[in-house]
Specification:
Lipocalin; 2 domains; eight-stranded antiparallel β-barrel; eight-stranded antiparallel barrel
Length: 236
């Protein structure tokens, strides 16, 4: 069958729109699936995702993976930046079949898991941040996107997570996360999982914050009670 040129162009435009739609099937947000006392948590921000598994009682960290992704029809394809189990499984890529229906996301892996999208709760510090340097910022060398050694903070809808990793060697150094609030210059973390020390779960940490351009100035005291000043740069 032959199509006239205008009709062909029309079909081509529809095809392009359909292709774009495939790439945006999973809306940004926090998705959770609870099976008994085990929580599966999926964080989506544009084309970046983090997948966590941990137990709530007793508090036990199990796994985290994360990286940039695309969707091809009904398959989620992830190029991993970090994998806490890399030494065991050597995985740098994931392909997971999925379906999505309104607020429910199903990962058709083994076993299949149904995730519920949590309510959006935007705050000052929402976004992806990479550790840049110790403060104050007086011209010292900063760690940037090109540096394979990274510490990422991912904040969205009242949930936070930090991950320390190396993109070239896939060396995983640790992670922790939970809920957070950021208002009136006070940033509070409530720890719900921590790979280095499960006994830290339940702790709340308070800090001061200030946004300067694309930088987050993070000050207060560390877990040892010592003064701390960190500068985090917004990831583009």
């Amino acid at each position: 069958m032959k199509y006239s040129k205008p009709r062909f162009i029309g079909y081509f435009i529809v095809f392009l729109l359909f292709t774009v739609a495939l790439q945006a099937q999973i809306p940004s947000g926090i998705y959770v699936s609870d099976t008994g006392n085990e929580r599966h948590e999926l964080k989506i921000d544009g084309d970046y995702m983090i997948y966590n598994i941990y137990k709530t009682s007793p508090a036990t960290f199990i796994k985290t993976v994360g990286g940039f992704f695309t969707t091809d029809s009904d398959v989620l394809k992830v190029t991993l930046e970090f994998n806490s189990d890399y030494e065991k499984d050597q995985l740098k890529q994931l392909e997971i079949p999925f379906t999505i229906d309104n607020e429910l996301l199903t990962l058709n892996d083994e076993p299949s898991l149904v995730f519920l999208k949590l309510e959006s709760l935007q705050q000052d510090l929402d976004g992806q941040w990479l550790f840049a340097t110790r403060g104050p910022d007086t011209g010292q060398e900063r760690r940037g996107e090109e540096n394979p050694r990274k510490t990422l903070k991912f904040l969205m809808d009242g949930h936070f997570q930090w991950i320390a990793y190396h993109t070239e060697t896939m060396r995983f150094s640790g992670t922790g996360g939970g809920s957070y609030t950021a208002e009136n210059g006070v940033y509070t973390e409530n720890i719900e999982f921590f790979s280095r020390d499960n006994s830290r779960v339940g702790a709340s940490l308070n800090f001061n914050y200030e946004i300067k351009g694309n930088d987050w100035h993070h000050t207060g005291k560390n877990s040892k009670g010592e003064p701390m000043y960190e500068i985090w740069a917004k990831r583009n």
